[in-house]
Specification:
The protein is α+β, with helices and mostly antiparallel strands. It has 14 helices and nine strands. The strands form three sheets. A five-stranded mixed sheet has the order 4-6-7-9-8. Strands 1-2 form a two-stranded antiparallel ribbon. Strands 3-5 form a two-stranded antiparallel sheet. Helix 9 packs antiparallel against helix 10 and helix 12 packs antiparallel against helix 14.
């Protein structure tokens, strides 16, 4: 924001700018009038006028180079300093000045070409370095010094191509060079237009007018045959105008409106920073809203999971009550039949009832455990356990219906460390895996123990039908049943899902290896109990 004091200063500068324009216009007219008196005086004043402006552009750019955030001012300022130096040599070498009497008209013409080459290249290169990193002022100055020094050496050493021949006029090289400069200046205008976002609109217009006037000046210098002729006069007037326009664009505008030239990049950076800040604030608000929505959804999921668990707990209690009665009565009948020695159809029916109650009780427990895993409310009571001893004792407790005699526990060669596990949950894991292995295979089911990545590994292998490769990725999903499982219709597809959840709750992992027709091996790990 610009306060009232700043507005007053700007108005004063605008008044000063108007006065400066009037004074410079009068000086331009005065220089033109000197042509009526003496062309040599006109030429000297025109060149001195251009040299003064070129040096002023350099001084302004050099002193403000640290404030500018790009290289444009630096390149233009240093470039026009050397243009002014060569123009001064051109003025001193002009015919009639007597400074370089042995060189004739060719020398000032060659120096003119050197100055215009440096000017054209500076106007072309300057916009190209607007968006690059900051250049060293010493490096830019040294580059111009070496380049101009090499050109001047070639001129005074006689290796620079001739530009003017006495009695003939301009050489083809001179005319071609002027056209080449016009092409370079057109390129400078194009590059400046592409970088227009870095310039204020009125500054950009002044730069275009300055470049356009230089082009017209160069074209006029392709037409003269006499250094004192009209085409030469017009060319110098256009050159004065182009330098004046550059002065207004860089020096006057820079001093009057520092916000729009020297600090324009700073203002743009500030605007970009404010825009980026607003964008980040908006993104932050969106993240906060998304986080709040996520928390709400998580709370809703937890609430629904808790409700589901409460419902399943109630249902399981209601189901288990009559199931317990049925199982108790069946066990009483089993004892009575044992006394009588009955082994017929009644005994078979009683075994079926007991097997069905065990299966039903297992399904109910699966539903309850599945709900607890889903809600994250599963509780463990881990203690140090000897895994080998635990498995052997569990095998002895298995009911006869599970055919525990088919289970072979291999005693490892190396001692297996104790694990930290919940006994009830570990028994559930082993029961689920052993039940599946015994159910879907014939022959021996092998249990092996070992070490896996610093944990104890327990593997259960069978020689059954195996599992199809396409079913392996889904094996531990909730309610997933293999083709074989769907044929038996004896489970809900929760056993392996619960097993995986129990293993991971202990801090272990579970995986399966299987080949169709060769059997399957389910392995899981448990963390070693700390000493």
């Amino acid at each position: 924001m610009i306060d009232s004091r700043d507005k007053q200063l700007l108005e004063e500068h605008e008044t000063s700018s108007l006065v400066t324009t009037v004074v410079l216009t009068l000086l331009l007219v005065g220089v033109l009038l000197t042509r009526l008196y003496n062309y040599l005086l006109f030429h000297s004043l025109a060149e001195v006028f251009s040299v003064i402006i070129a040096c002023g552009v350099f001084l302004f750019a050099w002193n403000f180079r640290r404030l500018a955030e790009n290289n444009y001012l630096l390149i233009i300022g240093v470039g026009y300093l050397f243009v002014g130096i060569v123009d001064l040599l051109h003025a001193l070498a002009f015919r009639g000045m007597g400074v370089f009497p042995d060189y004739g008209t060719n020398l000032p013409t060659q120096l003119w070409l050197v100055a215009r080459l440096v000017e054209s290249l500076s106007l072309l290169i300057g916009p190209l370095f607007l968006t690059t990193g900051k250049l060293s002022a010493r490096t830019v100055f040294l580059a111009y010094f070496l380049g101009v020094a090499a050109l001047l050496w070639s001129v005074f050493a006689g290796s620079f191509p001739a530009a003017y021949q006495e009695g003939v006029g301009l050489t083809e090289f001179k005319i071609a060079s002027e056209y080449a400069f016009c092409v370079l200046l057109l390129g400078a205008a194009v590059v400046t237009y592409r970088q227009r976002s870095h310039f204020q609109r009125d500054v950009l217009l002044l730069l275009f007018l300055s470049i356009g006037t230089v082009i017209l000046s160069e074209l006029s210098f392709t037409l003269y045959t006499d250094p004192y002729g009209t085409a030469n006069l017009v060319g110098h007037l256009l050159k004065i105008i182009s330098f004046y326009l550059l002065y207004v664009a860089i020096i006057q505008t820079g001093l009057v409106s520092p916000y729009s030239l020297l600090l324009r990049d700073l203002k743009q950076s500030n605007d970009q920073l404010l825009s980026e800040r607003a964008r980040l604030n908006a993104a932050l608000e969106q993240m906060r809203a998304a986080e709040a929505e996520r928390e709400r959804l998580l709370a809703e999921v937890r609430r629904q999971a808790e409700e589901q668990e409460d419902i399943l707990r109630t249902v399981s209690h209601d189901l288990r009550t009559p199931l317990t009665v049925i199982r108790g009565r069946a066990q009483l009948l089993e004892r009575d039949l044992a006394k009588t020695g009955e082994n017929g159809r009644v005994r078979q029916s009683l075994d079926s009832i007991l097997s069905a109650t065990r299966q039903m009780n297992s399904m109910i427990q699966d539903l309850v455990d599945s709900a607890r895993l889903g809600s994250g409310r599963l509780q463990l009571n881990p203690i140090p356990l000897d895994p080998l001893r635990f498995i052997l004792e569990m095998k002895d407790r298995l009911p006869s219906v599970m055919q525990a005699e088919r289970i072979a526990v291999e005693v490892p060669d190396l001692p297996i460390p104790a694990v930290r596990a919940d006994p009830a949950r570990l028994e559930r894991i082993l029961t689920n895996l052993l039940t599946n292995a015994l159910k879907y295979s014939e022959g021996e089911v092998k249990v092996t123990l070992g070490l896996e990545e610093g944990q104890v590994r327990i593997s259960i292998s069978d020689r059954g039908r195996g599992i199809a490769p396409e079913e392996l990725p889904h094996l531990f999903e909730r309610f997933y049943r293999t083709q074989v499982g769907r044929e038996h219709r004896e489970s809900l597809g929760l056993g392996l899902y619960i097993t995986k959840g129990l293993v991971e709750a202990h801090g272990g992992r579970i995986w399966v290896e299987s080949q169709p027709g060769q059997g399957s091996t389910f392995s899981f790990t448990l963390p070693v109990a700390s000493e």
